[in-house]
Amino acid sequence: MIQEFKAFIAKGNVMDMAVGIIIGAAFTAIVTSLVGDLINPIIGLVSGGVDFTNNYAVLAGDVPAGASLEAAREAGASIFAYGAFIMAVINFLIIAFVVFMLVKMVNRVKDAAIKQEEAAPAAPKGPTQEELLADILKALQKA
Question: What CATH number should be reported for the domain whose range is 2-142?
Answer without folding.
Answer: 1.10.1200.120
